[in-house]
Structures are given as C-alpha cells and as structure tokens.
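>> received
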Amino acid sequence: MSHFAEAVHILTTDGPAGRRGVTISAVCSVSDDPATMLVCLNRKHEFNHLFVENQVFAINTLSFRQQALSEAFSGKGDLSQADRFALGKWHTVQTGAPVLIDALASFDCRIIDTHEVATHYVIYGKVTAINMNKLESSLVYLNRGYHRVGE
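>> returned
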C-alpha cells in the first residue's frame, strides 16, 4: 500500500468521549449531494474508538509546509494529544471537532454510518461545513515519505 500516493490529513474529534487527532491518508469523497466523506481508521489503536463514540470528525487537509504537524499527529516525538494540538491553531465550526485554521481545506462532519472491515473502521460522515484557504502545494505521502505536489 506504500505505493499508493495520497494527500495527508489530520483527522480530529471532540465530544463526550474525549479529544483526539491522528494523521491519516485514507480519505475520499463519496457524494456531493449530500456532501459525504469517507475515512478509514485502524480500530486496533486503543483510542480511535473515540471518533465513533463522539459521532463527529473533521478532516484537515495539510499543505506541504505542515509536514511537522503531520509527523506530530502520526506519533513521532511521542507527544501527548494536548501537546500535539498546541502545535497548531484550532477552532470549531458546527460539530465541535477541532478544525485547523490554516489547513488547505477542512471538512466538518457528523457520522452517518460506520462499518468494521478487516482491521479498520470505515466511517462515513455528512459534511456540515467546509473551510478553504489559499491554494498552496499539497502534502502527499508516497513510498513511506512526504512529497510536495502543486505550485
């Protein structure tokens, strides 16, 4: 799967079950009417159930200059969740999931369906709000490394 190039995102949630953010690349658009997104999360990680329990998430698409933030949310540096979130500027839009202010784009979603497939949760979310920023180069992950795409 390392030969499959994908954009890099930080997936976040917050709610009664707790706050969490993780770096992921398994994201895709499902439908534009209604706007629906799909994300895949490893369910073997002890805290990824928080997304399902909170029933909300935000997909924050990263620019090339946000590689350090991606690495922090992927677990490099062994930072706590609070320390990871302290590295960025966040706000909330509709669902209460943290939205990265300077992400290329952010999709604030309410979970409408969840399936367990092999080792992962496959989570569908209805988009409740979208934030977009200035177009810059995207951060892409391919062959176990980061790459710059665009501009």
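>> The chain has a mean pLDDT of 94.
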